Amino acid sequence: MTAEIGAMRIAEEIDALEAQAIDPIPYVVSTRLLAAVLTVVPTYLIALALGFLTTKLTVTAVHGEAAGSFEHYFQMFVEPRDLVYSLVKVVIFVVIVTGVHAYQGFYATGGPEGVGVASGRAIRASLVLIATADMVLTIAMWGFDTEIGFGG
Question: How far is residue 36's CA from residue 148's CA, in Å, rounded to a whole number?
């Protein structure tokens, strides 16, 4: 995304929008942000469902545990609230990554080399921001106490 928007900046496509008194943000950034959310969220939900199904098949078919036991412990430890929190985190991560990459591409300068530098900068910034946001969101949503008791 950074390279695509950066190439638009270098090719003066964004400047052409500005010259026509058209704000380029809604056309260049907002559409990509909406597309990212609309594609990543369903993909995440499918991957989550497949992960749960694969775990169930592994526990029941490979390890020979009863399906009822798996369902009991699955429902005991996986709360719907946790699934909602994870979905909220995914949406926030998508917005962060898309925003960083769009920003770096939008303000790229210096030709193709500058676009490459902006792409590297966007990747590094995304990694740091995702790790930081994940820590902050995890503490905000679940706190420091896991509320899972393993003792009798």
Answer: 34
